[in-house]
Amino acid sequence: MKIAILGGTGDIGQGLALRLAADTPHQVTIGSRDAERAATKAEEYTTELDSRGLDAAVTGAENEAAAAAATVVVLAIPPYHVGDTVESIADALDEGDVLVSPATGMKRDDEGFHYHRPGAGSVTRIAADAAPDGVDVVGAFHNLAADRLANLDADLGIDTLVIGDDGDAKRTVVDLAEGIEGLRALDAGGVANAPEIEALTPLLINVAQHNDGLHDLGIEFK
Ligand SMILES: NC(=O)c1ccc[n+]([C@@H]2O[C@H](COP(=O)([O-])OP(=O)(O)OC[C@H]3O[C@@H](n4cnc5c(N)ncnc54)[C@H](OP(=O)(O)O)[C@@H]3O)[C@@H](O)[C@H]2O)c1
After folding, report:
1. Which segments in the chain show pLDDT lower than 70?
2. Are the C-beta atoms of residues 40 and 76 closer than 8 Å to each other?
3. How far apart are CA 7 and CA 62, in angstroms?
4. Ligand 1 center to residue 78 CA distance, Å?
5. According to a count of CB atoms within 10 Å of the terminal CB, is the N or C end of the chain lower?
6. CA nearest neighbour of 125 among 172, 70, 75
7. In whole angstroms, what separates CA 69 from the centre of its chain?
8. CA of 166 to the centre of ligand 1 (A)
9. Is the CB of 9 within 6 Å of ligand 1?
10. Exposed/middle/buried for 46, CB within 10 Å: 0-12, 13-18, 19+?
11. How many Å apart are CA 69 and CA 89, to the nearest integer?
């Protein structure tokens, strides 16, 4: 399967690109608003994989071209730009493609990070509202620490919660996530349940910041 990671030049995009390329047979393309930046980052990730003896080339392209070539498109971009970005790539998507949203709206003050719920209800909902007909949106990867993913020496042993209104699209993303070694994907229902998952991200960051040794913590449900 071809996976595009829009904003794959950033933190969570890097982690997902490296893990997916290292652990799964899928072809990963980094998307960016700037084709040259995408190509540079893709080369960097490929070099990292190669240094570990992994024969898994990551490619780079401008966001729309990356989305056009992919079946699964991950929106690894700041939450406030998710709606616009989905609209900007809508023509490049085919019926049956799946969009994946890991984004969470957050505000920061002196006390820490706080969930900033968008008016639409969740960022996943914003993506779903902006998606063209026939393209389903699935929420996943919200509660993963980018640095832990990007460090291929780090064992994961954590869960990701997956939400979506279409069973087939959700299964596609569950299978994709579980291809990453040490990551378990749990079905958390439909898009209406996205706020509860998105709200966990600031909680995790606050716990990470206040407790030594938990910098890149994740959740494991038992
Ligand atoms: N960091 C984490 O640990 C983590 C964990 C779970 C979920 N998330 C979620 O994942 C998303 C990305 O987080 P991140 O930390 O990776 O963010 P980031 O590094 O700040 O940004 C990711 C990429 O977004 C693109 N971008 C920036 N401004 C944009 C705009 N106006 N329109 C379209 N694209 C834009 C940039 O790529 P180009 O400049 O190359 O286009 C950038 O490299 C966020 O929504 C966040 O809530 C993050």
Report:
1. none
2. no
3. 10
4. 4
5. C
6. 75
7. 18
8. 25
9. yes
10. buried
11. 11
Which of 96, 91, 79 has the alpha carbon at shortest distance from 2? 96
**Four-residue CA torsion sign, 81, 64, 130, 70:** negative
CA torsion, points 218, 11, 138, 78, in degrees to nearest 10?
Answer: 120
pLDDT of residue 73: 98
Which residue has tokens 């389903």?
136
Question: Residue 76: CB within 6 Å of ligand 1?
Answer: yes
Distance 11 CA to ligand 1 centre (A): 7
The whole-angstrom separation of Cα 221 and Cα 91 is: 39
> Of 67, 1, 66, which is closest to residue 35 (Cα–Cα)?
66
Domains and CATH numbers, the chain: 2-210 (3.40.50.720)
Report the first-to-last Cα separation within the chain, whole angstroms: 31
Residue 78: CB within 6 Å of ligand 1? yes
Residue-wise pLDDT tens digits, 49-82: 999 999 998 999 999 999 999 999 999 999 999 9
**pLDDT in the model for residue 57:** 86
